[in-house]
Amino acid sequence: MALVVPVSAVDSARVASLNRAYVYLLGGIAALGGVLFGFDMVIISGTVPFFTQAFALSGWQTGWAVGCINLGAALGALVGGKLSDTLGRKKLLMGCALLFALTGAGTGWAGSFAAFVAFRILSGVAVGAAALVCPMYVAEISPAPLRGRLVSFYQLSIVSGILLAYLSNYLLLNSGPDNWRWMFSSQAVPALLFFGGLFLVAESPRWLIGKQRPAEAERLLTRIGGSEYAQAEAAQIEASFAHLTTESVGSLFSRELWPVVFIGVVVAVFSQAVGQNSLFSYAPVLFQQAGMGRDSAFLQSIIIGVINFVFTFIAIGTIDRIGRKRLLQAGAALLCLDALALAAAFYWRLPGAWVLGFVLAFIAIYAATLGPVTWVALSEIFPNRIRGNAMALATLALWVTNFFTTTSFPVLKDSLGLPFTFGLHAVLCLVYFLFVRARIPETKGKSLEEIERELTGA
């Protein structure tokens, strides 16, 4: 049996010898898959008034048009885990990038509502698979002292995609009667850039060792941290696979593994249920309802994107110092208060400036806490031998939740009103705060294998 050398025992000299530039290159390119996620989820926010008119849609149909991408993403999550274990992380991401580019143009120039929905669902397949594999890959190539920051780059990539989508919508707003078609088509640009960048990345060392290709894994690990680091990491990874008997989905529900898998699923669900989807997907609609003009509402949406981008750097700078659990707790508590403030603003019909302030505060809190920490936590807590299937299940739960929140928002808004809708989000934030406090462990500064031993007792 291979000798296991805990990463926590690595001295400061070895940590200092890490090839940070190379690690940041690998992690940064892989994290760009988040641009696909953010861009595609938000690009529709600027198109809603136009395609609903073009296809003469009802409220239910509008919710379906916005939310159907999440069903495709759920399917992508289901197949993505197995495909990432079979094909490798890199090849799957390249396929996702190409599919994303094709479906953007297909959605934009769809001749019927049925074709529009079909392309949106296919686009979701690409986004769902990429959302599963990107943070998993980044975690697997990252040394423990850098992992929180590097996986947070994935969330930075998501918010960059959101900002680019808002900016694209604003620039194309007055481009003519086909403006919404060009808005959707613009997503091909980041997709093709991501595809090209993937030629520069290496395969995951943990995937390589799992496929009995240790020499390739050690070469990569040596380039990341030198020969001593490579030997220690390879020994830990091999030990984590030593008792591997199956990677079936059924093993996720075993007495040993289900408590860890359950935590991951809950983290994924609440990351989408607290209310940010209502703001990202329907921002111009909300601002117009608060009394702002159309052009002004689109411009305010760009401000949302900027705030989201800027405050993500707070998480990147603090996650490896403050820790995952404390950031999740603080985020859930503050989001609960802000959702209550939004409910009050709509109930008492406060001026649009108040609504804008509370919306920006909500986005800032989410960007600095739950947004990035969710992906870090999901990429860390699952054992090596089930990581693909466990990430698939958690990401499936994430997309199903996203579907229900984005699809139900127009209905809740029209039937029960915005005060009730944001009051419901406040309750969900409170429930999440209590769950984090009681069940989620702290994982900062620990190797993936150390976390596995701690959570499973293996």
UniProtKB/TrEMBL annotation:
Its main location: membrane. It is a multi-pass membrane protein. Residues 26-444 form the Major facilitator superfamily (MFS) profile domain. The keyword Ribonucleoprotein does not apply. It is found in: Membrane. The keyword Transmembrane applies. It comes from the Bacteria. The chain crosses the membrane at residues 21-44, 64-80, 92-111, 117-139, 151-172, 184-202, 257-277, 297-316, 328-348, 354-378, 390-412, 418-436. Keywords: Membrane, Transmembrane, Transmembrane helix, Transport. Belongs to the major facilitator superfamily. Sugar transporter (TC 2.A.1.1) family. This is Sugar porter family MFS transporter. It comes from Hymenobacter bucti. The lineage of its organism: Bacteria, Pseudomonadati, Bacteroidota, Cytophagia, Cytophagales.
